[in-house]
Fold each of these.
Amino acid sequence: MIPRRAILTTPLLLAAQEAKFRIAVLGTEHGHVRGFLNAAKLRQDVEIIGPVSFEDRNKLRTEKAEAIASFTSTDRHLECARLAADLKLPLMMEKPLATTNEDARQIAKLSAAAGIPIIVNFETTWYKSHGELWRFFKEQNAAGKIRKMLAMDGHQGPREIGVGNDFFEWLTDPVRNGAGALFDFGCYGANLMTWMMDNQRPLRVMASTKQNKPQIYAKVDDEATIVVEYESAQGIIEGSWNWPFSRKDFEVYGEKAYAHAYGGNSVRRRKAGEKTEETFAPVDLKADEADSISYLKAIARGKLKPGGLSSLENNVIATEILVAARQSAKTGKQVKLR
């Protein structure tokens, strides 16, 4: 016979007894909210409050939200952080962190002063392929020092893929989005490269933007190329609303090997001396780090501390790269960061 105490502490019963994770969804104008809500509906351990507005802070208190997931335009992220700090609630916001360096730094200050975790959600954070690149370069040290990185992110364009009107309106506004494809898709490469370079601030940034479709995107760029210079490495970020199909590819080249992540589930790599490239499926991520909801829950309940791709440390630097790129594209000059 199993002792009564053992029965009460089995993992299955503990999971069943665990209170649902109550997430307040703030705003709906960011199109990624649909995927987030659809994912939440499939989980029995999650309860969604809202969507709520900035005026609903009393509702957040009475309904006892454990965390906030914001889906506003990027220019309102500082306002989201102020609300979260006032309520003392962990906050997850959609990429990128901010449209200006001033907002990014203020968000970091609010997080520290209020003692609340604030994290940034990128779809690419949960790619098993990127976890495999990290293991190959950082844990296995199989490629030596990183020398070059290429990030290629984007799709055919917001209008072309049929985003909603609310999303399209702010995404194509240079103030509310920060830029066009430069911020919308340049942020992925800035985030990933900062991560692979261990949160090292680049020396210099140079960028070029274009309007290939001014009849659709009259106020913002739809094509952007950013060159990020480090002391011993170079990163090239290609953010575009002109790809023939959606893509999120990341290539990293080291002294002794390279590895390419193609989407979330495929990796190709080759070491010096090998004649052929190896293609394989990466291993699964840890359960608490496999998706945005699981990660936010682990952060809010104290199982994990913010780090890596989601951290403010990373994303403040990523914002600096994007702001420098915007300035460089406007002036035609290289921008120094240190």
Amino acid sequence: MLFQGPPTERPAPERLFAQTAGRDRTMLTTDEILKQDDHLIQSFADLNALKQQGGRTVISRAEGAYVYSNDGEKLIDGIGGLWCVNIGHGRREMIDAISEQLATLDFYSTFYNFTHPKAAALAQKIAELAPGHLNAVHFANSGSVANDSAIRILQHMNIRLGRPEKKQVLSRIGAYHGATYLAMAMTTPAYADGWHAAHDIVHHLPSVHHWRDGADASEEEFLDHLISDMRARIQEIGPEHICAFIAEPIQGAGGVITAPKGYHKRAWEVCQEFDIKYVADEVVTAFGRLGHFFASEDVFGMVPDIITTAKGLTSGYQPLAATIVSDEIHDIVSGEGGVFLHGMTYSGHPAAASAALKNIEIMETEGIPENVRVTGAYFEQKLLALRDIEMVGEVRGSHFMMGIEFVKDRETKEGHPPEAQIALEIARACQKRGLIVRPLGNVAILSPTLIMDIAMIDQVADIMRDSILEVQAGL
């Protein structure tokens, strides 16, 4: 069933209960929480600005498609936690499944010769859902680590095949693959500004953003150019040195960038030709966001050699990620004479695996991916209608993964200067009206829970329109 509106009304809490060792249950005001928060290093934030100006929002409760601030604001969760709360917040079945698992087996590792029922069951379920020959699953606790694992596995595979020099990686401008040392190197260079990363093994192919980088070429001409460039770069580096090409079906934190139609299948064909493994980073796009459990085959018409996923795998209720590899790769790394010297303490954690199994069960029982094919398409069309606003340069994405780019001049596509913080101003205007969106430079990103009904989608579109017009009027 689709979510049919707001949860049962009850007074939103103005204070958050907290339990500290050796103390009775106390109630914390927002100011008290923010004082504690001074010790927290927040991710992807201007830490100096937070010290000087604050501006933090304390989220203390969530239910359905809504979150509540500690000061009582009721907000539509337009970013789904962070691309991840696909089935909505506060599902009792999820909480019970996690609690029951902790009461049965709180933790055991999957190292050496140990396993446990939930990790085994989840690995089998993911293999059943994944396309084609992807039947072996390695668990991690984040999408970044899942992507690191994919590359480490391929490099290890090539060492076992007697070709240790085949370890370089092709990525793309505009990509986002994570924040660990290797994943950051595979991410678009702008994210690594001021940081070191494993740049010596990563090569970035050009941006696939036709609207921004296609000049006067048609989409088909731009696609031909991208594939021609890919071939040239492979031949320049030498295919004998390249182990992988990694690509998101839709680039997420790089700005919700969609490649020209047919790009992924043609890139996959090039990889097959040069014996380069195709890694599909479905950390965001899997588990319903584009209307399917996995998008690679069902949406983009190709079966990669590895799929990585996280986020919607548990709908954010527990941290869990998976690297799903082909039978061919698994046969090589599991062959005689090799030890798989890779893994994390919490790989396949019992509570996280239990959460994923229940999450998948809910998605299948309620037909959430199938519903997204209808409601997500409607959401896409409602946001595309915002293109009639002068400062909206492009609306792009698919289903419940959308980006709106704002420009200073529509004809030249000139963006606003960074100091204008246009998307941030629009995000603030949206939050005043009850909607959380994610600002990213000149782009506002929407990746909501997958349970929004038509009425809520209309509300989100209206809030976006009113907020954009407010900011535009103030320019």
